[in-house]
Amino acid sequence: MSLKEDIYTYMSTNAGIIALTETRIYPNLATSRATFPYITFERIDNRSEHHMLAASKLARATYEISCWSDTAASLDAVAEAVRNAFDGFIGVMGSTIVRRARVEQNSDDFIDPTDGSQEGTFGDRIDVSLWFVQSVPVFP
User: Fold this and answer.
1) Cis peptide upstream of residue 137 (ω within 30 degrees of 0)
2) How many Å apart are CA 108 and CA 38, to the nearest integer?
3) C-beta of residue 86 within 8 angstroms of C-beta of residue 76
4) pLDDT digit string (tens) for 81-120?
5) Alpha carbon 23 to chain centroid, angstroms
6) Which of 34, 60, 76, 85 is the most buried (most CB within 10 A)?
7) Domain residue spans in the chain?
């Protein structure tokens, strides 16, 4: 499995997250009929680390995990569940060995309604860095 698939599986089996979102976790984009609250996530950065002679097994990826809801209170609960699931995590996430996960930053978002109503969409974008073990290329 890829790191992205492992993150999806991790979130979709985390009790704190699924208690609030059920199965509404989407890689990249949510479906047009997604009900609130839900989570989308995408990779925004991926870097392989090197030592003096070659590539090492250590890599760092940053994912933006975005929480979306129709109320501020619901949004805050989902964002807190995501933070609790990732910030400080060390261990195995699916098939990926995670050396450290850390919430780097989060920022609020609000999408104005397009239909003239007063009901917009509340968002919280959470950047999570994961230091993980990857395979190392071998050269002849």
Assistant:
1) no
2) 15
3) no
4) 999 999 999 999 999 999 999 999 999 998 887 777 777 8
5) 14
6) 85
7) 3-109+119-133
